[in-house]
Amino acid sequence: NMNCVLPEAGFLQTLRDACNQYGSVLIFDEVMTGFRVGLQGAQGLYGVTPDLTTLGKVIGGGMPVGAFGGKKQIMQQLAPLGPIYQAGTLSGNPVAMAAGLKTLELIAQPGFFNELDQKTARLVNGLRDRAGAAGINLSTNQVGGMFGLFFSQDKTITRFAQVMQCDQERFKRFFHGMLAQGVYLAPSAFEAGFVSAAHTEADITQTLDIAAAVFKTL
Q: Are residue 41 and residue 132 in the same domain, yes or no?
């Protein structure tokens, strides 16, 4: 993991072009981004179509389920059409499938992702502003309902090397300070954060108020 680092313009298309050139399979791991940045995931957001896609429990509304899918010529290699056998203990679990179908129904509603994006932006921008008011260098990334916090003097975080240079000890103090006040963030400086439809404007306001106080202790 390297937290939430957005691809630079043209990066994903370069991968697509290289795979086309050499006949390689392009796989997008959308376990984190699937249905969090848009109804079509990162591939829809950035307009690049992979050959295979992996998805995690977000497709089941948080239930234990995962999925992969892709182009017909690849998927036809799986049994019963092809020679590759694939199975799992919870494959097709009816409770997880019902939760997943309901999740898809809800997130497909008009305006869902616009509202999620705006809500997340309010949180992220608010955290950055309150950190600055406390004299703390905090850079942020955000796409859809995903966000990343980086205690760094770099204004923009685009590379793994930058993430590795962030102040991890300060992040730990921030995490524990927030936790002590009832706000549970991702416990690692290398993990992304998520805002969900269940979070209210009041939740965000409370989080920002608590963060303002915690930043002053760092």
A: no
